# Entry
Amino acid sequence: MWEGLSRSKPNRSPATLTRNRVNPAPVSGICVTCLDGCPGPCEIGRSAVRGRELLYPMPFGKVTAGSEKDYPVDFSHFNIQGTCVGALGIEADPDKAVFPAVDVSTEIGRQHKIKLAFPAFTGALGSTEIAQKHWKSMAIGAAICGLIIVCGENVCGMDPNAEIKKGRIIRSPEMERRIQTFRQWYQGYGDIIVQANVEDTRLGVPEYIIEKLGVEFLEVKWGQGAKDIGGEVKLFNLDRARQVQGRGYIVLPDPSDPITIEQYQLHGIREFERHSRVAMVTEEDFYKTVERLRSLGAKRVSLKTGAYRPADLALAVKCASQARVDLLTVDGAGGGTGMSPWAMMNEWGMPTVYIESLLYEYLSFLDRKGEFVPDVAIAGGLSMEDHVFKALALGAPYVKLACMGRAIMTATFVGNLEGKKLAEKCAHEQRDLKDAYLEHFAEVGTLRRRYPLGEYGRIPAGGVGLYSYINRMTQGLQQFLAGARKFSLKYLSRDDLVALTEEAARVSGLPYIMDADAAAVEKILGYRR
# Structure
C-alpha cells in the first residue's frame, strides 16, 4: 500500500511531548474533531501557549532526537549478497577463512594518514549540554576503540570560562579538557577532529587550537543533515544569554530588550535560544580557508556538508577534489541531533540513500576523468553493523567511513546509567565495584587485560558501554564480510548489495534482486530470463 510513498506525522510527536486527542486527519495531523475546550495536547495547541519553544525536541539537554519520517527508500530496502564460493584477502581454506580473521580496520587521509580500528567515527559533539556532560566517556571510548571523535562547533564560544580579548579566544578550559581527555587515552588509532563554523572563525578558534593546543585535524563545516540552519542550543539564564550574545551569537528573544527582561523576571520567558550563522559558501573562499588552515599547521583538513540540493553536493565534491582534502563527510537527512527544529528534521533535505547514490555518481565521474577523489564518509541515521556494511558498499570504493552520531551517544548514555546504578548498589551492599563491572558488562573481561578497573584509572561506565557496542558491531561486520567472502574492507564493492524493490534499484543504480547475477547464471546454466 505504501510502496513509493513517504509518510510524515504532523502536529504530534513524542519529540515535542505532544499528541492527538482522537485520531488525526492524515494530511493536517489535526484531530478529525477538534474540540472547543480541549487543552491542546497537539503541537498547534501547545504552540498557542509556548510559541517558538515547540519548534524543538524536548526536554533540551536530556535527549537526542531523530527524524520519524518514513522515506520511500532507506537501507532496509537493500540486502547483503552472500556467496559460498572462494575468498578475497585470505586463503580459501575453511580453517583459515573464519570470520574473526576479517580485517575491519581502515585508513583515511591524503599524505598524513590516520588508521582506524573500526570504520566509523562520532558525529560532531559540540556545545550542547548533553555533549559536554558525556564527553569524557565518549572521548575515552573512542580512543580505546580506535575511532575518530569530532569536537563540534561553538565549544570555545560557549565556554563560560573562556578568556576572550579583543574578540579573539585566548584560552578555553572546556576545549583543553576535550582534547586532553582523548589524547590521554590515545592508542595509535583514530584522531580528534575540531570543527570551525562562522563564529569559531571570527573568534580565532582555528589559530588557538592549532598553535596552542596542537590539533592537527580541522573540519570546515558547511552544514549537517538534520537541519539547514546553523547550530543552536537553549540557555536558561538571562546573564548567560547576555554573555553569549556579547560573544557575537544570535540570541532569541533579545536578552538586552527591556520587555524581554521584564517577562523573564515574571517567568513568562523561561529559556533563550542561541543560534549560529549559516555559512555563505563560495569556491574561492573555501580554497583560501583550506590553504590558510594548512599554513597555520593543520596536517589534515576535512569538509562536512549537509543534505542540501544536488547542485550543492556537486559543489562540495568539486571543492573537496580541487582542494585535495583528507576527508569529505556527507550527511543525509533522516539522522538526528541534540536540538534541531523538529519539523525541519523531518521535512527538509535529501535522505541518506538518495544523497549517497548521487554522491557515488559524482565521485565516479571525477575518477573516470582522472581527478583527485578524496576519502569520503557518509552520515544520516546509521546505527548498526548492517548499516555500516551497506553505507560503505553503496559508495564503494570511495566511502571509507560511517559517521554515527546518535548511536554512539546512546551506547554511552546507557553505559553511564548502568554504571551509576552499579555504583549505588555496590555502595549499599558494600561490594567491590570492579567485581560488579565484571559481572554486569560482558566486554569488561577484554578491557581488564589492557586497563585497570579499580577506581584509579578506571574507564568511565559510558566508555565501557561504547567499547561494548563497538565490539558487537566489529564482530557483526566481520560476519557480514565473511559471508560475502571479503576478508578485508578494501574488497567491499557495490556488487555486495542488491535492491529489494525496483524503486530502490532505480535510486541506487544497483540491480533489482530478480535481475542480479543474470550474466553469471547464463554462463553457468545457459539460462536467460
